[in-house]
Design goal:
Structural class: alpha/beta
Number of helices: 7
Shape: globular
CATH topology: Rossmann fold
CATH class: Alpha Beta
Oligomer: single chain
Largest sheet: 5 strands, mixed, barrel
Order of helices and strands: EHEEEHEEHEHEHEEHH
Helix content: 25-40%
Number of strands: 10
Radius of gyration: 16 Å
CATH architecture: 3-Layer(aba) Sandwich
Length: 235
């Protein structure tokens, strides 16, 4: 302690951590929803905060973009800071006609082109999945709040700008949306015996080319944040 990435002291993080990719979204969540929030990390600009939500200790930590970055931060939180549950709160591009900007997607599974699981040298392919307990709680809370929510597979890809578009191939397999971090998060949780879930807000409609603004991505998707925090209360 501290590690070279989150340089927080031992005990700085709560057992449950919300992880947006954008550190400014972490700051927004802490300032908007947490009571007594204190910044516990700022190394490399990857902001982290700990406070309470309705009396329950909760932390928020930026993860950065892609599996390598998520892999580092979630690994260190699980293994070095005693974190038990990580809920990724991010954005995604939907590839299904029935999903629109502002809708919620719960990633039950994470397929995609990431080779993150190759490090385990398993005798077959590993299917990264969320904690069903977290998925069940989050879906129920989202529906109680009147949110439009879909549960299913997302594609976690290592490339954002693809030379050949993967959209149609993944769409035919029923994949709901594309994102870039869930495979690493789910693999790390499985290997550590911890719990993880990805909760996404649709920020782009890849079939119609509609997109949310940068400001909306940072601070307007509050329904996702509230669902994640209410899920944390149930743990």
């Amino acid at each position: 302690m501290p590690t070279t990435h989150p340089a927080a002291p031992e005990g700085a993080y709560a057992k449950t951590v919300l992880m947006p990719g954008d550190p400014l979204r972490a700051k927004f969540i802490a300032e908007t929803f947490l009571t007594g929030a204190v910044q516990v990390n700022g190394v490399r600009g990857m902001l982290g905060f700990t406070g309470t939500y309705k009396g329950r200790p909760v932390s928020v930590q930026g993860s950065g973009m892609g599996c390598p970055s998520m892999g580092i931060y979630s690994y260190e939180l699980f293994h070095f800071y005693g974190v038990e549950h990580i809920i990724r709160v991010g954005t995604a591009g939907t590839i299904q006609e029935g999903l629109h900007i502002g809708d919620l997607v719960i990633a039950l599974g994470a397929c995609g082109n990431s080779h993150f699981a190759g490090q385990y040298q398993l005798p077959g392919l590993f299917a990264p999945t969320a904690s069903f307990r977290l998925v069940r709680e989050a879906e129920a809370i989202a529906r109680e709040k009147g949110c439009r929510v879909a549960v299913g597979n997302v594609a976690c890809n290592d490339t954002f700008y693809d030379d050949i578009s993967p959209v149609e191939a993944w769409r035919k397999m029923g994949v709901l949306a594309l994102e870039m971090e869930s495979t690493a998060l789910y693999c790390n949780a499985a290997r550590a015996g911890k719990e993880a879930m990805t909760l996404l807000t649709v920020s782009d409609e890849l079939l119609t080319h509609k997109a949310a603004t940068v400001q909306e991505r940072q601070s307007a998707f509050t329904a996702m944040m509230e669902v994640a925090l209410e899920t944390a209360l149930a743990l």
